[in-house]
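sry for the spam today, last one i promise. C-alpha cells for design, 137 residues
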C-alpha cells in the first residue's frame, strides 16, 4: 500500500487506478476467507477431543492448507504486478521482499503435500466422515 501511494503513473498515484483497487480487494477477500476458515477450524477443534478433531477435521485441515497456499501464490503474484519491474529486482530496497516471496512461494506449498494431494485428501476424508456419521453422500 505504501508503494502504491508513492508511485505515480499516468499522472496519478498508482493506488488511484481502478485496476489496483481491484487487485487489492481480491487479495483482501482471499486473505479474509482463508483466515476465517482457519478460525473456524480452530474453534471446532477446541470443542472436540484430540482424537475426535483428528478424525473429523483432517479433511478440512487439508483443504485449508491447499487454500492457504493458493492464497499465498495469488497475493504474491498480484503484489508483483503492483510493484511492476521493481518487484523482480534482486536486492532492491523497495521490491526486495516481494521478489523474495515470488521466488519462494512454490517452495512453501510443496512440503506437507502439494495442493492436488491436499485437495484429494480433503474430499476423501470428508466423505469418510459423512459415511461414518450415517449421512448420505
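last one done:
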Amino acid at each position: 500500500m505504501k508503494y502504491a501511494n508513492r508511485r505515480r503513473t499516468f499522472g496519478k498515484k498508482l493506488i488511484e487506478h481502478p485496476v489496483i483497487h481491484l487487485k487489492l480487494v481480491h487479495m483482501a477477500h482471499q486473505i479474509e476467507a482463508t483466515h476465517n476458515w482457519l478460525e473456524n477450524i480452530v474453534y471446532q477443534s477446541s470443542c472436540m477431543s484430540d482424537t475426535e478433531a483428528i478424525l473429523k477435521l483432517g479433511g478440512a485441515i487439508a483443504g485449508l492448507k491447499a487454500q492457504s497456499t493458493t492464497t499465498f501464490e495469488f497475493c504474491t503474484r498480484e503484489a508483483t504486478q503492483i510493484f511492476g519491474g521493481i518487484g523482480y529486482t534482486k536486492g532492491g530496497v523497495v521490491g526486495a521482499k516481494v521478489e523474495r516471496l515470488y521466488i519462494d512461494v512454490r517452495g512453501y506449498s510443496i512440503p506437507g503435500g502439494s495442493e492436488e494431494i491436499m485437495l484429494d485428501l480433503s474430499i476423501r476424508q470428508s466423505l469418510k466422515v459423512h459415511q461414518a456419521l450415517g449421512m448420505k453422500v
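The mean pLDDT is 85. ok im logging off now
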